Amino acid sequence: MKFVLLAVLIFAVIGFFVVVWKAARDWRWYQIVAAVFTMLLAVTFMFPVAGVLKSRAAWHQVYEEQVVWVERVEDEQQVIKHGDPADPTVGEGVISLAQKLSKLGVEAGRRWRSLRLQTADANSITLVQSAADAGILPGADPMGADPAAAADAAAPAAAPVPLVPDGLVVYGYAEQPQPNAQFTIPMFYLGEFRVTASAPNQVTISPTGPLEAAQEQAIASRQASLWSLYEMLPLDGHEPFIADGSEPDNQNVFGRVDDELVRRLLGNRVSEDTLNDYLRDGSRATPNDRPESRWVKVEFTKSYTDEVDSPDQRGALDGGFFDGNGRAVDSRLQRGGEDQGKVTFKTGTQIVVKEEAANQLFDDGVARLVDTYFVRPLNDYRFVLRRNRLRLTELAIRQEELKFEAQVLQDAIDATVTMLTTNQDIKVKLELDLTQTQVEKRAITEYHDKLEKELTATRQLLLRLYESNQTLERQLDQIHRQVVGRMEALTSAQ
Fold first, then answer.
1. CB 78 within 8 A of CB 115
2. Bridge partners (DSSP) listed for residue 174
3. Mean pLDDT (the chain, rounded)
4. Do residues 369 and 300 touch, judged by C-beta distance below 8 A?
5. Would the pLDDT of 143 be above 50?
C-alpha cells in the first residue's frame, strides 16, 4: 500500500510539471511560482496529514473499543447498583445493600470496634485503640454509618477529639475471631458502662450496675481482650440467621435457617427450647406452637384497602411509632403520597400476617388461608437486659432470703438433733428406770402377795381366836352366873 501511494505521488508531481510546462507560454512568472510553491507545500504537508490520519484511525479504533467498554461498564454498573433478578448468583445490588447497611447503621448507632483491654479493676476499665488494630482512623465508624465523624477524624484538628464522648452510656461486647474470616465480630455481652474519661485513642469506662458473674470472670481473666462498644443495643431480626443464597419458599417464609451458624452462636448459651425456636424460625407451624408465634400466609380473594397512616402526627419519642390501631404516627414510617396513607391489595396477592390479623381478614371474607408458619417473636434487648437484670437482682435477694431461711432451718435441725439426743438419753434412762420399776413392782407384788397370804392366815387365826374367845366368854358368863347363883343361894341360906 505504501508503494502504491508513492507511485501515485510521483505521477502527480510529474503530471504537475507537465501541466506547468504546457501552460508556461500563457502564464506569467508569478503564477508559475505560486503554483510550484503550492505544489511543494502540498507535498510537504502530505506526510503530517498522513500521520494525523493514521493517528486518527488508531484513536477512532480506541474510541470504538472504549464505547464498547463503556457500554459494558454501564451494564456492569447497573448490575452492581441494582442487581440482576434473572441471575440469582449475582445477588443484591449496591443500592439495596447500602440501604440495609444504612438501616443497620441507624439501628446500631455509633460504635467503636477493636478496642484492646489495657487495665481492668472493679470500677474502672481502660480500653485502647490504634489505627493498626482497627484498620481505620481512631474514632472513625468502621461501618461507614457516620461519614462526618470519619471526615472530622481524618482532617487535622486544632484540638484532639476524644475517642468516645465523655459521659456516654455504651454497651460492651467481647469480640472473637470467626472461622475462615479475617476479622472479629462481637460474641459475648459484657454489660452496660458509662464513659468516665476519653482520649483520642483511649477510653475509660465503669459499669452502671453490678455485672454478672460470667461477665466479671471474662473481664478479670482477660478472656475479653478485644472489645467493641455500641451506643445502642442491636435489634433482633430474622434475616441474620438465614443461610447465604437461601430464598423464601413455601417451606420457609424467610428462607432456610443456617443451622451451623445458629448452633455455633447459641448452642451452649440458651436452653433447648430457645435454640429450637431459632432453628424453626419461618418454618411451618405445629398445633402446639404459642399463639404469639403463629403467622399466616393469606391470599386475597377480593381487592382490599387498608389505612396504614394515622391522622395523628407526632414523633416516635412522644408515644411510640404507632397508635392504638397499629397505624403509623411517625412521618418517617407513614406512606403518604397520592394513596393518602392507604395500601391496596389486589386479588391474588399473598402476604404473611399475624394470626389475629388473618382471622380478621377471614371474617371480612376478603382472603383465604394458604399456610401457617412459626415466626420467632423478636427480642427487644433494651427491655430483655433490663428485665434480666431486675430478675437477677430479685434472685439475689431471694437467694439471701433462702440462705437466711436455710440457716434458720439448720439451726432448728441442730436444735432438733440436740433435743433428739437429749431425749434419747432420757429415753434410755427411762427405759432403765422402767426396767428397775418393773423389777421393784414384781418384788412389791410378791411381797404384797406374801403379806396378803400372811394377812389371810392372821385373819383366820384371829377369827378362830375370836370364836374361841367368844366361847370362853360364854363359858365365863355361865360360870359367873353359876357363881353368882351359888353366892346368892349361900347368902339367902344364912
1. no
2. 188, 227
3. 82
4. no
5. no
Torsion 97-350-361-287 (CA) sign: negative
Query: Hey, what's the cell of 375?
Result: 415466626
Q: Vertex 462, ends 459 and 466: CA angle to 5°?
A: 135
DSSP-derived 3-state class of residue 20: helix
Q: How far is CA 291 from CA 237, 325, 374, in A?
A: 19, 20, 10
CA distances to 114, 133, 178, 351 from 184, in Å: 8, 11, 6, 37
Q: What is residue 101's three-state secondary structure?
A: helix
In this prediction, residue 367 has a pLDDT band, given cuts at 50, 70 and 90, of very high
pLDDT tens-digit series, residues 159-205: 678 889 889 989 999 988 876 667 788 888 888 899 999 988 899 99
Quick one: pLDDT band at residue 155, thresholds 50, 70, 90? very low
Q: Please tell me the distance from the alpha carbon of residue 389 to that of residue 395, in angstroms, as a whole number.
A: 10
At residue 404, the pLDDT reads 93
Res. 99: pLDDT tops 90: no
Residue the block writes with cell 392507604: 342
Residues in the chain: 494
CA-closest candidate to residue 174, choices 263, 133, 114 = 114
pLDDT score, position 250: 87
Is the pLDDT confidence value at 40 over 70?
yes
**DSSP-assigned beta bridge partners for residue 371:** 297
Distance CA 215, CA 90 (A): 42
Kindly state the helix (H) or strand (E) to which residue 483 belongs, with its residue range.
Answer: helix 381-493
**Would you state the cell numbers that stand for residue 317, as one nine-digit string?**
419519642
Q: How far is CA 321 from CA 22, 293, 309, 333, in A?
A: 101, 22, 11, 8
pTM here is 0.56
Distance from the Cα of residue 336 to its chain's centroid:
34
- Cell readout for 1 is 500500500
- How many Å apart are CA 313 and CA 336, to the nearest integer? 12
135, pLDDT greater than 60: no
Q: State the cell numbers at 156.
A: 487535622
Crossing angle for the helix pair 259-266 and 272-279, to the nearest 10 degrees: 150
User: DSSP secondary-structure letter at 276?
Assistant: H
Q: Among 110, 78, 74, which Cα is nearest to 94's?
A: 78
C-alpha–C-alpha distance, residues 350 and 371, integer Å? 11
What is the Cα–Cα distance from 445 to 292, expressed in whole angstroms? 86
Which DSSP helix (H) or strand (E) runs through 454?
A: helix 381-493
Name residue 299's beta-bridge partners: 350, 368
